[in-house]
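We emphasize that the prediction below concerns an isolated chain of 97 residues; any contacts that depend on oligomerization or on bound cofactors are therefore not represented. The input was used exactly as deposited, without trimming of termini.
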Amino acid sequence: MKMTIVGAARSAGTYDIDGKSGTYDNILLHCVHADRKIEGQAVEVVKLKTDDFSADIVASAGASLGAEPHGLKPLIGKVIDVDRDERGRVCDVELVK
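Result of the prediction step, given as a C-alpha cell string:
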C-alpha cells in the first residue's frame, strides 16, 4: 500500500515489564493514504525497528538516524510502499519517491 509520510519521529529507550527488561529503538512514520471506506485520507503510523533495513530507507531519502541538524525531516513528503504479512506486521518497505 502506498503512503505519504507527513511526520517522522524516533522512539528509543528501555522497558521493564513484569520483570522482563530490554531496549527499543524504532522509527515512527506518520503517514496518510487512500482508503475506500473513508472520505479523504486515512492516517496510520508505520513503526520500523532501527536496523540495517530501515537505515537504508532513511539514508536513501537523504535523512539520518543521528542528531544532525535535519535528522528525519527529509523523509517528510516521501512516498513509501508498505507490504504486510498475514498478521498485519510490516515485512517490507520501499521508498517510491
